[in-house]
Structures are given as C-alpha cells and as structure tokens.
C-alpha cells in the first residue's frame, strides 16, 4: 500500500504542526513535533486528543504509534505556560485545573482507544511525558532513553503521572521514582516494567513498526475486545476477574472473527478478518 502522509488541525495550522500524522498499512504514526522539549502544552494535548479521537473512528487505523522529533520524547507540561497564568485574577487556578483535567482525559483516551497504542521513545520522557509513556499499551525505547517523575525537585509531587506509573511499573519502583525524582536509564525502566523493549537508536522505528505490523495483522475485533477486557479485569479481585473474563470469552466465541479464525486454523489457511 502506498504511504499516506497528511496533517490535521482542530483549530489552526499552527496546532496541526504540533503533531505530525502518517498513516500506512493500518499503522498511524503520531509524532510530537515541538522540539526541543515536546511539552504537553494545552495546544499539544488538544491536538493529540483530536488525533486519537479521529483514529478511534477510522477503520483504516489498526494500531497507533506515538513518537517524537528531537532529543526529548516529552518534557511534560510546559512550566512556562503554567507560570504565566499565575498572573490571572485567580492566580492561575482555573488554568491549572483545565491543564491537569485535559491531561487526565488524554491518558484515558489512550486507555479507552479500541486500538493498541505503542510509545516509541528516543530521549528523555519526564513528568507528564513519562505519564504518556506509562499510559500507552506498549513502550519501546532506545538504549539511551531516560525517564523520570521529578516533581519533588521543584516543590511538587507528580500526582497525575503517578496514576499511570503505578499501573505500569512495579509499585515500589514507581514509588522510588516519585519520591526521589531521579532519572532512570532504559535498562532500569525495563526492569521496573515501564518499557517492553530496548533497541539501538538506529533500529527504533524499524522495530516499533514491526511490532505494530504484527498487531495490525490480527483480528481488529479481537484486539478491541481484548484491550477493553484487559484494563477492566486488571482492577478487579481475581474471582471477579475470572467471571468477567469467562463472559468475554463466550462473547468472543460468538463473533464472526472467532468463527473465521478457528476455521482458518483448522483448514490451514490465512483468516479473512472483518473490517468493521
């Protein structure tokens, strides 16, 4: 399939350039494009949110990759933007509320998206940038990537990044990152459970695209059902989770894709998945 390259905007050409959009073979690559820091400013989050919402409704999109330009994956919220609003009549409280509420909505959009989202990290992912990584379904980074939740270093506690981090990394390791604010390297991030794979810089995009291609070849229906079920059951007590999972299995067995997939396996042929 020929590669399709396009750019979208919700409000202006300026906001469109914040996130580059590339779609090829069912894989949507969304690239944060505001170096050097790729801050999750209000405009960046609004633009990324719009792209994810569009992807949810686009049958041509099977997998989403979130990548970045420059040497920083994302330095999190724009502290300069936040500080400027301290001059507001309410000392910035309304803007702070809007920023952190939008960040939460963005992370939830990733979790609820009916398609897998892979973070492709080359460089530093800090604070809300680390939160973004932790919110994605999979994360693959270079061997020089670094991660941190440094709020405590500037008089804050990374409370919103904490939500995604504690659901991705192991609990005590997440607390270590939150309490110390120290930067961890790629190997430590993998040990902590924050990333899946570490690859040399020159192979990052190739490896991530390969993972995305493998996932894109599977049943869209099964992937959608499975992703939703994963995030629902993980918060349940084990007995409740098994009961729920059994219901999901029965419902899945009744789908066209399960019938087609099992039939294809028994007949030793490639399955023809439904597309809606």
TrEMBL record:
Signal peptide start-end: none
Keyword Transit peptide (UniProt): yes
Protein name: Enoyl-CoA hydratase domain-containing protein 3, mitochondrial
GO molecular function: hydro-lyase activity
Record function comment: May play a role in fatty acid biosynthesis and insulin sensitivity.
CDD domains documented for this protein: crotonase-like
Biological-process GO terms, alphabetical: fatty acid metabolic process
Keyword terms of this UniProt record: Fatty acid metabolism, Lipid metabolism, Transit peptide
Organism: Rhizobium metallidurans
Keyword Coiled coil listed: no
Phylogenetic classification of the source organism: Bacteria, Pseudomonadati, Pseudomonadota, Alphaproteobacteria, Hyphomicrobiales
Gene3D superfamilies xref list: 2-enoyl-CoA Hydratase, Chain A, domain 1, Lyase 2-enoyl-coa Hydratase, Chain A, domain 2
Family: Belongs to the enoyl-CoA hydratase/isomerase family.
